[in-house]
Write a structure and sequence with these properties.
By secondary structure, the chain is mainly alpha-helical. Helices cover 89% and strands 0% of the residues. Helix 2 runs antiparallel to helix 5 and helix 4 crosses helix 5.
């Protein structure tokens, strides 16, 4: 019963947060989708030389995995933790400034661009079944946490901006920055979990499915 009550409280807090900031969530989601579409458009309009380089890179990666190549999980974990930590710190910092919101939205658009770029490159290189399997096995699990986390970080920055514009008293600004900081720390923890998932679950999943690609 206690666990059920805790889950209900957490889900209620999350649903209330989304409802209260629904417009902001719609905005950042649209920005992410625009980034994804731009990534797809870009990869489908690159010159042949660059397309061949991308295909060669992906094919080499797939072939090395098929040859029982061992992924250095320690190195991968370190790189993903550093990358995600830099991302959160950057979004926290620029989101804490009045002029930083366009940068936050730009970061979200860029992450969407990377997603669209990667999926399209996999589909072009490996074809419909192989590209889909590759994209799902290598990207899906960690992005179930990663995407909501960066969207929430963007919304937190927008919320801070609105609060400062609404009430410019120093005390209010301090309180809102503290809230934004605590929220960012929580999102960092979620992204660290995403790093673990990417390192240990996604790598195993892609190894398991590599022969179907």
């Amino acid at each position: 019963m206690r666990r059920t009550n805790k889950k209900n409280k957490i889900s209620k807090i999350i649903s209330n947060h989304i409802y209260e900031n629904l417009k902001s969530y719609i905005i950042v989601t649209i920005i992410l989708l625009i980034g994804i579409v731009l990534g797809v458009i870009y990869i489908n309009n690159i010159n042949q030389d660059l397309a061949n380089e991308i295909k060669e890179y992906i094919n080499n990666f797939v072939n090395t995995l098929k040859d029982n190549y061992t992924i250095d999980k320690v190195e991968l974990m370190k790189n993903t933790i550093i990358s995600n930590s830099i991302l959160v710190v950057t979004m926290w910092f620029v989101g804490s400034t009045v002029i930083g919101i366009p940068i936050v939205l730009g970061i979200i658009a860029y992450r969407g661009f990377c997603i669209g770029y990667t999926i399209s490159a996999a589909l072009i290189t490996l074809g419909s079944p192989g590209g889909i399997i590759f994209s799902i096995s290598s990207m899906l699990l960690q992005n179930l946490l990663f995407i909501p986390a960066i969207l929430a970080l963007g919304v937190s920055g927008i919320k801070l901006y609105k609060s400062i514009m609404k009430d410019k008293r120093r005390e209010n600004i301090k309180i809102e920055i503290i809230r934004h900081t605590l929220f960012s720390i929580f999102m960092l923890i979620i992204l660290l979990v995403a790093s673990v998932i990417e390192t240990y679950l996604s790598t195993e999943l892609i190894i398991m499915t590599i022969n179907f690609i």
